[in-house]
Amino acid sequence: MIEVGAVLVSEDLIKEEFVCNLHKCRGACCVEGDAGAPLHQTELAVLQEIYPQVKPYMTEKGIAAVEEYGTHVTDMDGDLTTPCVDGNKECAYVTWENGITKCAIEKAYESGAITWKKPISCHLYPIRTTVYPDFEVLHYDRWHICHSACSLGRELHVPVYAFLKEPLTRKYGAEWYSELEAAAAENDSNK
User: Fold this and answer.
1) What is the sign, positive or negative, of the torsion defined by CA atoms of 116, 122, 123, 124?
2) Stated pTM of the model
3) How far apart are CA 170 and CA 108, in angstroms?
4) Distance of alpha carbon 98 from alpha carbon 146, whole angstroms
5) Residues sharing a CB contact under 8 Å with residue 80, sequence separation 6 or more, in sequence order
6) Quick count: other Cβ atoms within 10 Å of Cβ 160?
7) Pick the residue with more confidence: 144 or 57?
8) For residues 50 and 64, what is the distance between their CA atoms, to the nearest angstrom?
């Protein structure tokens, strides 16, 4: 683990390579799994506020799920998540373009309808965060559906943390990200 401020960063985020390859995986991370996207308590009010602007970008099934369950739910483990369509299928905020999943929240953001891009857990994926009272830990979540992203990352020589510069900066700030880059460079030079 590498310590950057109050965050412990798994060395896998520096050693492993990753670049999303939507043309291969078709956005399976928005569909696979047994629950919706993890949410932070602070994101709940945001989802409720932006839902009217996001709704036009959603599928009928997604809208039905939100209308039935709300803009967020508590999953079987007690964690806050986005609701899913038909119990545990795709995230309610998924929309489809040419057979590839897209995020309706992000589509609303890209069109200028809202100023919030999407839940930070989605933006950071494949990084998962574990929060403790005094610090956070960033882990690399390996999942078979991301095999093509790992292959593309290796081909392009892009470490996980570099691929996720924008969401890491969004969550922790530009100064923190610069410290991470310096730690990664030092880690590389020690090999």
Assistant:
1) positive
2) 0.87
3) 18
4) 19
5) 38, 39, 40, 41, 43, 44, 72, 73, 74
6) 25
7) 57
8) 16
